[in-house]
Amino acid sequence: MRLTFLGVRGSTCAPGSDFVRYGGHTSCIAVTPRGGDKPTLLLDAGTGIRSAPAMLHGDAFQGSILVSHLHWDHVQGLPFFPAGDRADAVVRMYVPAQDGRSGRDLLAQLMSPPGFPIEPEGLLGDWTFETLEPGPTTVEGFGVTAVEVEHKGGRTYGYVLEDDGYRVAYVPDHAPAVGVSDELLEALHGVDVLIHDAQFLEWERPRARDYGHATVDDAVHLGERVGARTVVLFHHGPHRTDDALDTMADVVPTDLEVVTAREGLVLDA
């Protein structure tokens, strides 16, 4: 599989000259299957999803979107995704099951008047909004395991994708200091790549705990604990400048490969 990072920020977009090299869009990663020439799976639908049409060669998006949770920064790009908002689009959207509500109704809490001009049905094309329970499933031919993680304000998942024995974990919002379940450790064990929340630095830990997020130390130490080969630092704070991110991968001494996510980064399996 090929992973293309389209948005790597957390909480809110970060415009301006200090945020050009790593990008200012919020969370979205495009996943292209082995042998494919365009993505069929999107991880989250932050404002980075606006860059996905450039990968589709003028075609409508026909595939799935896995949403880690329903906070604004992870879905706010959805109605501004032109390749998904057209008559020939076919989109299956999966959100964490919670409160006995449908996927459509969960999304409509964020996307409906007076807070937004249209409801989910206002998107053109063939859209389905499904809830997902924890556990293994198959999405767009990828093996997917959904695992609940600690994060404030609504059910939040980390996802482990598997294709031909290669395993990638996507855990964009997570507070390991609050707890790491046995189920999560088992799911992450031996992953090739761990893409993990790294919104805060260690001196900001009180704020990280208040916000339900991780520090860079948390991300690296979790990678060591589960035996990951590579840790990708993700969900950067909107205040974190390019110059600050330049040194992020060196903050914690480790034998792991540590990569700081930036828009346009491509990882090939």
Question: Main sheet, how many strands, which sense, barrel?
Answer: 7 strands, mixed
Principal-axis shape equals globular
Strand order of the largest sheet: 6-5-4-3-2-1-14
State the separation between the terminal residues, measured CA to CA: 5 Å
Please report the total strand number as a whole number: 14
Average pLDDT score: 97
Count of DSSP H/I helices: 6
What structural class do the secondary elements suggest? alpha/beta
Rg over CA atoms, rounded to whole Å, is 17 Å
Q: Could you give the order of the helices and strands?
A: EEEEHEHEEEEEHEHHEHEE
- How much helicity do the residues have? 10-25%
* Low-confidence runs: none
Strand content: 25-35%
- What is the assembly state of the chains in this entry? single chain
Question: How would you summarize the topology of this molecule?
Answer:
Layout: E1 2-7, E2 28-32, E3 41-43, E4 62-66, H1 72-75, E5 90-96, H2 103-108, E6 126-132, E7 135-139, E8 142-148, E9 157-163, E10 166-171, H3 182-188, E11 193-197, H4 205-211, H5 216-226, E12 230-234, H6 242-246, E13 257-260, E14 266-268
Parallel strand pairs: 3-4, 4-5, 5-6, 10-11, 11-12, 12-13
Antiparallel strand pairs: 1-2, 1-14, 2-3, 7-8, 8-9, 9-10
